[in-house]
Design brief:
The chain is mainly alpha-helical and 83 residues long. It has one domain. The protein is 81% helix and 0% strand. The radius of gyration is 22 Å and the shape is elongated. The structure holds zinc ion (ZN). Zinc ion binds next to helix 1 and helix 3.
Length: 83
C-alpha cells in the first residue's frame, strides 16, 4: 500500500501527465481508504479547474476588450512618465 506522501506526489504528477495503470490502481486503492488524500485530490482538481477558468477568462477578456483604441491608450500610458 502506498503511503500518503507518495500518493500526494503522484496526484500532483497526475495533473501534468497521466499515471501508468499500476500507479492509477495503487492511488485509487489508497484513496478508497484515505480521507486526507481524497481531500487533497479534490483541492488539486479545484485548483486546476480554477486556473483553467482564469486562463480562459483572461484570453476571452484580451480578445474582446482590447480594441486597437485600447491598445493605443495603453501604449500612450506606458510612454507617459509617472509623476
Ligand atoms: Zn493518504
Amino acid at each position: 500500500m502506498l503511503k500518503c506522501r507518495e500518493v500526494t506526489r503522484l496526484l500532483t504528477l497526475e495533473t501534468e501527465q497521466p499515471l501508468n495503470a499500476y500507479r492509477q490502481v495503487a492511488v485509487t486503492l489508497h484513496l478508497a481508504i484515505c480521507h486526507n488524500c481524497r481531500r487533497h485530490r479534490r483541492q488539486l482538481r479545484q485548483m486546476r479547474d480554477w486556473l483553467d477558468q482564469e486562463a480562459q477568462h483572461e484570453v476571452a477578456q484580451a480578445d474582446h476588450t482590447l480594441s486597437a483604441e485600447a491598445r493605443q491608450r495603453i501604449a500612450e500610458q506606458l510612454k507617459t512618465p509617472k509623476k
